[in-house]
Amino acid sequence: GFPNMQLIKQYQTAVPIHSYQQLSLEINRILNGEKQVLFDEAVLWYERTSGTTEQAKMIPYTASALKAFKVALFPWLYDVLQQQPTIMQGSAYWSISPVSRDQEQTADGTPIGSHNDALYLGEEAAELIAQTLAVPAWVAGVKSIDAWQYITLRYLLSDADLSMISIWSPTFLLQLIKAIPEMAEQLLEDIKNGQVSQPELQPFKDQFNFKPDPQRALLLSKNIKNGVVYTREIWPKLALISCWSSASSQVYAKQLKSLFKDVWIQSKGLLATEGVITLPFSGTKSPVLAVRSGFYEFVDQKGEIKLAHQLLTGQTYTVLLTNYSGLYRYNIGDRVRVTGWLDTAPCLDFIGRAGSVSDLCGEKLSEDFVLPLLNQIPGFTLLVANPLPNPHYCLYVDAIEVSDEWVKQLSAQVERHLNQNPQYKYARYLGQLGPIKIIRTQHPMDNYYHQQNLSKSLGDVKPPGLSQDIFWHTCFTVVGDSNEQPLSV
């Protein structure tokens, strides 16, 4: 009935709010090659997105869907270049699509995954961007994580002109920087001799174009010492790192800032596989609604539907997206808070996932409630519900950052914060919930990355926050005494 719809109210009446599961039958028909289902365009490729425990989602990409990305990304890139024009004089590292993924296709031969991230900016721009890449696009096809990490660092460390990095999660870059001292001997020797010594990369040898660079190797050796990477000396032209920096990414963005002190760490807007919600813009407190990239509705705390011009500063909303990929009034599951306005467009801060609510005994802890607490704790933090043997919560922390002596004080601090939730406080009062348990762990981010990478590609891994998945209790190496018994899952 779309041809008869003249008013937004008619659209809202005719089309219900959808989850992915409610559209999955139609999307499966498209995957099986059926035409004119949900939209009347050819599918260029599909992107897969998945959570830890939920079924994988397959999002079709059409020419119109790509244009919706482009009309948001171009203003962002233009604004960035106005603020930091020196970026145009150097190279850039882009990580958009997941790395180390297999080349897949559907039964009718449609690719799963883009072969070139720059296509999000259009074919003409993709050709220009390809000339400025610090790490060529083929590297994303390396299957081994170790080999991918090596060759990525081989390119980045060889490039003295690196001026911009655009990634999703700050943990992605933190893990790369952490690996530099571990691989330094091999990397510096290869840069000195113009070689690639990783055996797993030999199938790609026709792609290499390295020349011996003993001078660069010497500079690197002076600036990678005792586990410390002196980033300013290695990349003197680096001006911008664009990444997530809100919600559970906040603490890791701060860690990036400590490693790249003179670099602009720009908060990336809310970009999902399903579409663009917001884009960062200079002079605004938070990213701005990408008004030309879709149709947006917002569900307030009373469950009432609002349009963009009806939002109120300071209020929190869940986003509904209508896009060009067949997602109509799609509950994307992201919660945003209005922080102000750019002319008539709302500025929106991402504060967490609407579905990230843990409820063992009626306490209903939400991610946006616990994140202000977790962001005060240095290093890795993951709050996990534990139903056994008696319901309680475990807070996994990094043993390097949280000493054994601090655990008791931290436990009290966490309990005070959680007790601000009246349901949690009542459940504790009744004895339904046991006290919080702080668990110091060894190399928790490495373990987290490993486990997430079993179900997600590396570039898709989001920082931890709140989880109800009990399998996390089996994944960490506990430091010191702990009365927390591993679960058999």
Question: Can you give keywords for this protein?
Answer:
single chain; 489 residues; alpha+beta; 5-stranded antiparallel sheet; 5-stranded mixed sheet; 13 helices; 22% strand; globular; disordered C terminus
Notes on the structure:
This protein is of the alpha+beta class and 489 residues long. Helix content is 30%, strand content 22%. The chain contains 13 helices and 26 strands. The strands form nine sheets. Strands 16-15-17-18-19 form a five-stranded antiparallel beta sheet, with no helix packed on it. Strands 25-22-23-24-26 form a five-stranded mixed beta sheet, sandwiched between helices. Strands 3-6-9-10 form a four-stranded parallel beta sheet, covered by helices on one side. 36% of the residues are buried. The model is unreliable at 454-459 and 483-489 (pLDDT under 50).
Radius of gyration over alpha carbons?
Answer: 24 Å
Mean pLDDT level = 86
End-to-end C-alpha gap: 48 Å
Count of DSSP-assigned helices = 13
Quaternary status of these chains? single chain
Q: Beta-strand percentage?
A: 15-25%
Largest sheet, described in full?
5 strands, antiparallel
What's the arrangement of secondary structure elements?
Layout (H helix, E strand, L loop, with lengths): L7 H7 L5 H12 L13 E5 L7 E5 L1 H21 L7 E4 L9 E2 L5 E2 L10 H8 L14 H14 L3 E5 L3 H24 L20 H10 E2 L2 E2 L1 H4 L5 E4 L6 H10 L4 E4 L3 E2 L2 E2 L1 E2 L8 E2 L5 E5 L5 E2 L9 E7 L7 E13 L2 E9 L3 E2 L6 E2 H8 L6 E6 L5 E7 L8 H12 L3 H9 L6 E6 L1 H9 L13 E2 L9 E2 L11
